[in-house]
Amino acid sequence: MNRFKLYAFLCVVICVSSCKETSNTRKGEKVISYDSLSVDTIQLGQLENTSYVGFSGICEDSLYFFDSVLCYYYKVGTDGTIGNKKMGLGHGPGEIPTRVEGVSYSPETKLLFAAGSTYDGYTYDERTNSVKRLNMKAPNWEDPFRSPGSYSTWDEYIQVSYKNNVFFNILNEEKQFMLSEENMEKSAIIMKYDTETGDMTTLGNFSKFMLENQNRVRHLPHIYFDVALDGTFYVTFQADASIYHFDEDFNPIANFGFEGRDMDTDYSESTTGVESFGKAYEADMNKVGFYTWLKHVNDYTFRSYRKSGTAERDGLQIYDKKYNLIADLDVPRGLKVTGYIAPYYVSQIVSDEDNQTLSFYRFKIDE
């Protein structure tokens, strides 16, 4: 499960393929109800020990920060207060023996799952302060587009837990140099890992928009997704204005969504050649706007986006349960909603390594 870094990723050809979309699944209107949000910036107190590099999310009624280098796990209150340090890097009880690539918490099992780098995973049970190692089964099937063994993970790794399953975004490593239409149509986008059996299953495809516009967006191929409490999937792509809703078996329910305000979408053209791809990437990374995050919380779907490389503020879209766009707002750069802790919606924890600070954003939505 080698993790691809984007600078190395420039040396491969991006494969994009088509979701199963039907014309009658398009839903949602613009019904703007909010023209502003009052966003608080909350700085965390001093951590006992941290590298300032890690992952964050929601665990019951708290935020958490997991240090990806030292494997320390901290609970964080909505006022920035920090709980006791737990876990750590090592071989003792309650410790993880390796640096991890991602973490996620399952409210159903009350377990934190940490992904290793070599098909290893670890569950942490805070109730017993115990760590259990799990092994992932990634077989190589005859069909390389469905075979779990054909896939690696992205440099921008997204991981979500739901019940006993863990989901993460994937890249077809085996077929990365092939330029056939078959490759563009069939590559999967998400891996499902069953923590009880070890089985892995590939899910989904790239959107029709990504396929039809591949010469404009192949250098902006990232996938963002979430799994709702009912087990359905919400998916968006870095350069695709639509959001796709799928059932538990990845059958389409609806697609919805509108382009963010004031986005620079003048993307560079490229071919499948490595040099052309690299030039498009270099030209656009500090210039254009694109979508950066997706989270479904309560009855809302939140999508963050960058307006451009020079914009001082990011955009945040909020969609209601009927897929209507009810807000499209300017927010601080880097704000990515991660969950709800009454009465606040809270963002991921943002790390400033230069100033050695950790902070997050919180806001309320008046019903």
Report on this model:
By secondary structure, the protein is mainly beta. The chain has a single domain (6-363), classed as 6 Propeller (Neuraminidase). The protein contains 5 helices and 27 strands. The protein has a 5-stranded mixed β-sheet, with no helix packed on it. A hairpin with a 2-residue loop joins strand 12 (159-162) and strand 13 (165-172). The N and C termini lie far apart (44 Å). The relative contact order is 0.17.
Descriptors for this entry?
367 residues, mainly beta, Neuraminidase
Shape: globular
Figure out the total of helices: 5
Instruction: Assign the CATH architecture.
Output: 6 Propeller
Q: Portion of residues in helices? A: under 10%
Structural class: mainly beta
CATH topology: Neuraminidase
Largest sheet, order of strands side by side? 1-23-22-21-20
Biggest sheet: strands, sense, closure? 5 strands, mixed
**How many domains comprise the coordinates?**
1
For the record, what CATH class applies?
Mainly Beta
Average predicted confidence as pLDDT? 88
**Strand segment count:** 27
The Cα radius of gyration reads: 20 Å
